[in-house]
Structure formats: structure tokens, C-alpha cells
Amino acid sequence: MQDTTFNPKLLKTRPHFEILNGMRGLAALVIVVFHFMEIIISDFSRIHIAHGFLAVDFFFVLSGFVIAYAYDNRVADMGLKTFVKLRLIRLQPLVVVGSILGLFTFFFDPYSNLYGVYGFGQTAMLFITSLFMIPYPVVSERYFNLFNLNAPSWSLFWEYVANLAYATILFRASKKILATVSLIAAAALFYISWQYGNLLGGWNDETFLHGFARISFSFTMGMLVHRSGWIIKNRLGLIGMCALLMLAFLTPYNEQWSWLVEPLIVVFYFPLLVSLGAGASLSSKLHKINKLSGDISYPLYMTHYPFMWVFANYVVAEQPSMSTLAWVIPISTILLVALAYVVMETIDTPIRSYLKTQLKTKVIK
Predict the structure, then answer these.
(1) E-assigned strands of the chain?
(2) β-pair partners for 234
């Protein structure tokens, strides 16, 4: 018998903004390439994709926009418990997969023996805190990352915080309140960038609160873009939008001016890109590649970094030449994309489909 207190239609997702999904995939790939490059080149001014780390801020703006679009008209009726379940179904399976991969490389990295240093107890604690998204910055060899087994989880931690804030407070917030929060957070971004020289922080113990500033601005601004209807119709298409997105990542790194350039990109350029991406039309010829790009973006983001630790230790131990790295990095990138695809097809998608079916079944009983 159907529960009259809950409408199962509230579990149905709304149609996606297709090109924004494709752009997300490009941003995830840029993150992977950036992580390779920052390991082998310490001088950011020599990295052509030096602002690739700002892809995280693009993700945050996109998340605020998409969450507001997908849930504004149903979260009040849905309730906090169901909302949390839906977000856990969407995000948590790959948190678990990333933690397992991180544990695997922690044990079997041929170029280091961190398990020998930290032992069973600390390693178990690293794994448990990674599974439950509890920051635990204790591994000095990994620069006190908040999540030492899978470093990108720091942004997922703030994603969870933003989602909870949305379901409890922000979904009721007026546009004026969202604008006020965005303005304060934008000021914080400019201040942090001025103090530290860039917006690269948020991933370790020292810069923990930088992550709060980054998610606070970008998530609320994404919500504001949706709530205000700032969707700009255009004919740029997938290729045009991806080209505009790449301009942000390819912006040259200048030690003297990057403290100003980076918050300008985040505060003004990324919201504009989301507005344009939401208003762009996708060519039918590019539908498949666009869908694959969007589908694989989160799996790629959450599975690549455990192998970056192995790569970093390989670089230190073997000191490969740039000519060797010129083929090692592209091949490794292809393999990481392939791994992400396999994880998506065999683990993430089936588990999410099963869990969502179970949730729907419980609702209508």
C-alpha cells in the first residue's frame, strides 16, 4: 500500500543540462593532468595548465546550480532524511572505492613502505576516517592531507557539508541572503589569495578553512545563478563551452598577479560559464561523447589520486627524464580514464541503481 505521506515522484530526477555535464568531464580530466604536472614541475609558471586546480571551484559552482535546480521544488516535501539518502547514494559508493584503492596503494606502493611506518592501527584509522569522510591529517609524508588515502576527498567533505547546509538552511534562503553569503565568501577568497599567493588550499590541515571559503562562495553562487534565472541562451555548443572553460585552466601562472587572477576567475568567470553552459544547445552528433564525459567525471576524480602517490614516489626514486615522462604521463592518463570507466560500469552505476530502486521500493510499501 502506498504511503500517503510521501509522493514517490519526489525521487524522480529532472532532465540534466547536458553541456554542463560534458564540461564537468573535461574539468575532471584537467585535474588529472594537473596533478601529474605539479608532481614533476614545482614551478607553476612552467606548467601550461597551472590553474587546473581551479576545476574544483568550477565543480562547486556547478554543484550549487545543479542541486538548486534538482531539489528546490521538492526538498521541503522530501524531508532531510530522504535527501541525505539520495546524496549518499550518489556520492558515497565512489568514496568507498577511492578509499579501497588508496588502501591498496598504501600497502603495495613499490617505491615506499608507509604501512611499515604507520602500522596496522594507524592504517586502519586512515581507512575508517576515509570511508566516513572524517578529516585525519596525520601522514607527514603526504603533506598532512585531510584524507591521506585519497586526497581529493577533501572537496567531497565540503560537498557533503554544503549539501547538509542546503537541506537544512539554504533551500529556504532568499536570493538576497544567498547574495550576501556569496559576497562575504568572495571577499574571503580575495583575502586568502592575497595572503597565500593563490587559492590552492583546502586539502590539508594548515589550509582547512580555505576549503570552507571556496565551497561557501561557489556553492551559494551556483544556487543564485539558478534561482535568478541567469541562463544565457547561445550557440556556442559543447566545443565552444569547453574552449571557454579551458581558457581558465590555461591562464598563465604569474607569481606576482595570480593572487588576483585566481579569485577573479572563480568569482566572475565560472558563474558566467555555468550561465552560458546551461543556455547552450548540444549537437546530436556530440551526444554520446558528452554523456560519457559527464558520466565518467566523478569516477575519474575519485579514483585517480591513489596512483598519483605511486607516481610521485616513482619520480623521486627513479628520477625519470622528461623524455620518459612524455610517454609515461599520457599512457598513465589513458589507463586512469579506463579504470574510471570500468569502475563506473561495474561498481558505481550498478550499486547506485540498486540502492535507488531499494529506496523507491521502501517509499511505496
Answers:
(1) none
(2) 280
How far is residue 271's CA from residue 160's CA, in Å, rounded to a whole number? 21
At residue 74, φ and ψ (nearest 5 deg) are -145, -10
d(CA 294, CA 117) in angstroms, rounded, equals 39
Q: What residue has cell string 511505496?
A: 364
pLDDT of residue 57 exceeding 80, the answer is yes
Q: Determine whether 301 is exposed, middle or buried from the number of CB atoms within 10 Å of its CB (0-12, 13-18, 19+).
A: buried
Q: Which residues contact 12 (CB under 8 A, 6 or more apart)?
A: none
List, in order, residues 6 or more apart from 5 with CB less than 8 Å away. none
How distant, in Å, are the alpha carbons of 54, 163, 192, 333, 346 from that of 211?
12, 15, 11, 26, 32
- All three cell numbers of 172, joined, read 529556504
Angle made by CA atoms 346, 347, 353, in degrees to the nearest 5: 100
Rg (CA), the chain: 20
Q: Taking CA 113 as the corner, what is the angle to CA 110 and CA 118, rounded to the nearest 5 degrees?
A: 150
How confident is the model over 302-329, as a mean pLDDT? 97
Give the max Cα distance, the chain: 67
pTM of structure: 0.95
Q: d(Cα 128, Cα 147) in Å, to the nearest integer?
A: 11
- Cell numbers of 137, please? 591529517
**Structure-block grid coordinates of residue 274:** 555555468
Closest by CA position to 314, among listed 111, 151, 141 = 111
